[in-house]
Structures are given as structure tokens and as C-alpha cells.
Amino acid sequence: MPDFDFFTYFFIGIIIFIGFGYMFFHSFFVNRRIKVQREKEFVQNINDNALGEPHILRDLDLLEQHVLKEKHIGAYRFVKLNHYLIPLNALAIGITAYFGVFKNYLNADLFVDIVIYLSFALFAQIGLIFKENSMYKDLRSPVFRVTGSLLKFLTTKRKRKIKKFVIRGVPFDSEENRDIENFWDKWNEGDKVYIEYSPFTKHIWKIEKV
After folding, report:
1. Can you give the pTM of this predicted structure?
2. Which H/E stretch holds residue 112?
């Protein structure tokens, strides 16, 4: 087996602990803020008949259908390849583990680096399949609308800053919607915002401050 010393185990353990700890506390505080906001909106819904809650607005227009089709076709090309890439990636992880652990052909650092890289690649491939499925569903779904007080969250994904708007519990991020970047510094938390969007990918078709 690879020659893992105490410091290697300790370093890997610290990284895993910090990573999971950050995700847990960040998720806790985000969900807590959303829950508090939703409790306020529940009281408002009693007075205004829940007019701002997410609901069906209209069908996709021709331009929106074209945009979704182009996005879906691009993602589907990769998904078709993933049917071959995912088994190959899983096989590569197994081969690496076999030669690294049982045959001792790899040193500890190289073994860890290869397994981490292949694991991230595998998760990315699986994630793309779910995203493509969401695009497919949006092509057959109407456009929704939601109006409510704005919550803003800043998260990190693969070392990239992702800006997120949440309206009445519905999340919209800058990875899917570049318009959020334009409004991030202009709009404040608590501003009333109106959004038209597709329900599965949360792709925004219209956004404005009321």
C-alpha cells in the first residue's frame, strides 16, 4: 500500500473537516435566513391572497423556445458522451485504486491527486446529466412568475464566486443568469423584485425591481 504517514492522514482529515464544516454552517445560515423571510411572507399572503407566490404566467414564446433548444442541444451532446465517459471514469478510479493500494505502484501524493481529480470529473459528468434533464423539462413547461423581497447570497463553486438571488424561497444564481451580475450592486436586500422564469433550470426571462 502507499506509504501514508501521519501528517498525510492529518492533512487530508483537516481538509475534509473544514470543507464539510463550511458547507454545513453555510447551508444552515442560508436556510435560516430563507425560513425567517418565508415566515414573514406567510403573514403577507393572508392579506394579499398570495399574489406574489410562484405561479404559472404564460407559455414560452418562440424566442424563449429557441434559446432553451440551443442550450439543450449543447448539453445533450455531452450527455451522450457521458454514457461512455462515466463508466470509463469509474473504471479509471478502480484501476488507480488497485495499482495504488494493492500493488504499491503509486506514491501517496500522486495517488491522492489522481483519485481526487477523477472523482471530481465523475461528479461533474453526473451533474451535467441532471442539468440536461432540467433543460428538457423546461422546454415542456410554462413560464412562472414570482414577486417578493430580495435575499442575496454569495457562494463559492469550484473556486468561482456565485451570486444568488432568492425570491420567496426560489433561488436564482449568476451561473445560469448573467443578469444577476448586473443588478448585484444596484439592488439591496429587501427590495421588491419581479421575475419571470422557467421552473426547472431557474433561467430568468425577465427581471425588474418593482
Report:
1. 0.66
2. helix 108-139
